[in-house]
Design brief:
alpha/beta; Rossmann fold; pyruvate-formate lyase- activating enzyme; OB fold (Dihydrolipoamide Acetyltransferase, E2P); 3 domains; 5-stranded mixed barrel; 4-stranded parallel β-sheet; 14 helices; about 40% helix
Length: about 425
C-alpha cells in the first residue's frame, strides 16, 4: 500500500513542479512516507529525520514532510517532538499535499493534516494520471478496515472501510495498461471486503481480465472472513488471476484468534483452503503469523505450528507480537522474550523449509515468468513466477513485458535461476 501511495504522492507533487531526485542533498523537499505495522516504526521515523538533519547541517534546510500511518497516529505530537519536521499529513489526506506545501511556503507555519477523507482523496486522484512506469503495478481499490483486530492499528490510522467506485478502478487499470503495465495487484487493507454498488472483488477481477494488455492479476491483503464463494469460484474461471492466495491467519489456535478478535475459526480457514484446492490444485497459500501473542500457551503455539505443517505455506511473514499504542492489546502482558524468540525461530525454520522445498520442486521444469526488467548483469533479466517468486534468467530485451517460458536450472530460498526457452533454443541451434 505504501508503495502505491508514494507513487501517487509523486504524481501529485509533479503538478507543482517537483521531480524525484536520487541525491538527498540536491533536494529542497524531503518527504518520508511511513507505515505503522512494523515494530518501532515511530522511532525509525525520528532516526531517519535525524539522518536528514545531519545531511543538511551546513546547507539550507529542505521542507520536511512526514506522511502515512505514523504521521496519522502521532500528528501534532510529531511536530512538537521534532521541530525539524514542517508538515505532517495522514494517508487519507495526501491529495491536499500541494495545498499544504504552498501554504507552508506562504506562511512558514508548521502544518498538521490528518483528517479521514478517503472519498475526497480518490476523487482528486482520479484526475491525476497514474504514471507507474513499471511492468507490475499496484492499484488501490479499498482502504480502511472495520474488523478491529485487537493488535492492529489500521482502523485508527486508515479509518473505516471505503471501496472506490467500480468504474473509476477499471478506468485506472486501463490507463496503467496503456502506460505499459502488464500485471496489476489490487490493494486494500481488507481487499476482499470490496463492495461498491453490488460489485465485489470477483467482479473487478473478471472485468480487468478483459483488458488484453493485462496478463496477470493479484490482490492483497485479504481477511479469511471475507473469502466468499464468488471470489473462490473466480479461481476456477479466471485465466489471469494468479494461483497464490495470501490469506493471513495470524494463529492456528481458536483461543488465540478469539483473544485477537479475528472473527474467524481455524475450521473456517481450512474449509476455504480445501474449496480453493478443489477448484484449482495449483493454488498455493501464503500467510501472516503473530507469534507469542499475549496469553499464547505451548498448546496454542503447537496448534499454529501444526497448521503451518499441514497447509505448507510457501511464502509467509511471521513476527513476534509487538504492542501498538491505542489498540486493545496495547497494554497486555508480554510473553518472555526467550520463549518468544524460540517460537519464532521454530516457525520461521518450518516456513523457510516449505519455501525451499517448493523452489527445489521447480528445478529442471519450465515455468511461466512475467519479465519485468534487465538486471545490472549484461545478459540477466528479472521476472516473477505465478507464485511471486523472483526469477533471474538469461534472456533478451524483447521479452520485457511478456510472459515467457523459463527453464529453471537452480534455486535458493528466495530465488529461481534459469534460462528463457527462446535463448535456450538459440543456443541449441
Amino acid at each position: 500500500m505504501n508503495e502505491y501511495d508514494s507513487n501517487r504522492i509523486l504524481d501529485t507533487v509533479k503538478k507543482i513542479g517537483f521531480i524525484k531526485t536520487k541525491n538527498l542533498q540536491d533536494s529542497n523537499c524531503y518527504l518520508l512516507n511511513t507505515c505503522h505495522i512494523r515494530d518501532k516504526a515511530k522511532e525509525k521515523v525520528y532516526h531517519e529525520i535525524g539522518r536528514v538533519k545531519k545531511s543538511f547541517k551546513s546547507k539550507k534546510k529542505p521542507i520536511v514532510i512526514v506522511a502515512g500511518c505514523v504521521a496519522q497516529a502521532e500528528n501534532e505530537e510529531m511536530l512538537k517532538r521534532e521541530p525539524y519536521i514542517d508538515i505532517v499529513i495522514g494517508p487519507q489526506a495526501y491529495h491536499r499535499i500541494n495545498d499544504k506545501i504552498e501554504e507552508y511556503f506562504d506562511k512558514q507555519k508548521k502544518l498538521d493534516e490528518t483528517e479521514f477523507d478517503a472519498i475526497s482523496k480518490f476523487n482528486y486522484l482520479d484526475k491525476i494520471k497514474n504514471s507507474s512506469g513499471k511492468i507490475s503495478s499496484f492499484l488501490t481499490i479499498q482502504e480502511g478496515c472495520d474488523k478491529f483486530c485487537n493488535f492492529c492499528v489500521v482502523p485508527y490510522t486508515r479509518g473505516p472501510e471505503y471501496s472506490r467506485p467500480f468504474d473509476k478502478i477499471i478506468d485506472e487499470a486501463k490507463i496503467l495498461s496503456e502506460n505499459g503495465v502488464r500485471e496489476i495487484t489490487l490493494l486494500g487493507q481488507n481487499v476482499n471486503a470490496y463492495e461498491n454498488k453490488n460489485y465485489r472483488l470477483s467482479d473487478l477481477i473478471l472485468e480487468i481480465e478483459k483488458i488484453s494488455e493485462i496478463k496477470r492479476i493479484r490482490y492483497t491483503t485479504s481477511h479469511p472472513k471475507d473469502m466468499t464463494d464468488d471470489l473462490i469460484n473466480v479461481y476456477g474461471t479466471s485465466k489471469k488471476l494468479m494461483p497464490l492466495v495470501h490469506l493471513p491467519v495470524q494463529s492456528g489456535s481458536n483461543r488465540i484468534l478469539k483473544l485477537m478478535n479475528r472473527k474467524h475459526l481455524i475450521s473456517d480457514y481450512i474449509k476455504t483452503y480445501e474449496k480453493l484446492k478443489n477448484i484449482n490444485p495449483k493454488i498455493e497459500f501464503s500467510s501472516d503469523f503473530i507469534i507469542a501473542y499475549p496469553g499464547e500457551s505451548d498448546e496454542d503455539f503447537r496448534a499454529t505450528f501444526d497448521l503451518i505443517k499441514n497447509i505448507k505455506f510457501i511464502n509467509s511473514f511471521s513476527f513476534i507480537f509487538s504492542p501498538r499504542p491505542g489498540t486493545a492489546a496495547a497494554n497486555l502482558d508480554l510473553i518472555d522474550k526467550k520463549i518468544s524468540l524460540e517460537r519464532l525461530e521454530k516457525v520461521q525454520k518450518q516456513l523457510f523449509n516449505h519455501q525451499i522445498r517448493m523452489n527445489k520442486s521447480l528445478e529442471n521444469k519450465e515455468i511461466e515468468v512475467l519479465v519485468e526488467n534487465k538486471t545490472d548483469e549484461s545478459s540477466k533479466f528479472f521476472g516473477r513466477s505465478e507464485y511471486m517468486t523472483s526469477v533471474i534468467f538469461d534472456g533478451n530485451d524483447q521479452e520485457v513485458g511478456s510472459v515467457i517460458k523459463v527453464k529453471i536450472k537452480s534455486s535458493n530460498q528466495n530465488t529461481l535461476f534459469g534460462i528463457s526457452l527462446n535463448t535456450l533454443e538459440k543456443k541449441v541451434a
